[in-house]
């Protein structure tokens, strides 16, 4: 199974300048958005992964806006949203200031 991931903003820099990445996932099991993020983390490193999701004692949370086929995954099943062959994820970094 293959999904396409579009990277925006500084996430593109963390991904060695790649704008779009095709990710191959195992056909068995039920891959979800978090599965894709973990594969991207293995490919591009921990800093990339930390800028997309945050892992803490209270659970795993999004640190970026994540769209699946144009719909924000928070309106679906969050990081547990299933992905299928041909889906497109868009990762948009969120900046905070103070």
Short account of what is shown:
The chain has 98 residues and is α+β, with helices and mostly antiparallel strands.
How would you explain this protein's 3D organization?
The protein has 98 residues and is of the alpha+beta class. The protein is 22% helix and 33% strand. It contains three helices and seven strands. The strands form two sheets. Strands 2-1-7-5-6 form a five-stranded mixed sheet. The chain has a two-stranded antiparallel sheet with strand order 3-4. A hairpin with a 2-residue loop joins strand 3 and strand 4 (59-62). It is globular and about 30 Å long. The termini are far apart.
Q: Given the helix and strand composition, which structural class is it?
A: alpha+beta
Low-confidence stretches: none
Radius of gyration based on Cα positions: 13 Å
Strand content: 25-35%
Number of helical elements: 3
- Helical coverage, percent range: 10-25%
Q: Identify the overall geometry.
A: globular
- Whole-Å distance between the termini? 42 Å
What does the average pLDDT come to? 90
Question: Strand count, sense and closure of the main sheet?
Answer: 5 strands, mixed
Strand order of the largest sheet: 2-1-7-5-6
Counting copies of identical and different chains, the oligomeric state is single chain
* Strand count: 7
Order of helices and strands: EHEHHEEEEE
């Amino acid at each position: 199974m293959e999904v396409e991931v579009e990277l925006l903003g500084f996430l593109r820099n963390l991904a060695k300048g790649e704008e779009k990445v095709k990710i191959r996932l195992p056909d068995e099991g039920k891959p979800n958005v978090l599965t894709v993020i973990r594969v991207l983390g293995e490919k591009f490193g921990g800093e990339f992964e930390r800028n997309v999701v945050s892992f803490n004692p209270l659970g795993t949370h999004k640190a970026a806006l994540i769209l699946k086929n144009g719909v924000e995954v928070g309106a679906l099943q969050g990081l547990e949203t299933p992905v299928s062959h041909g889906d497109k994820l868009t990762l948009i970094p969120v900046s905070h200031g103070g």
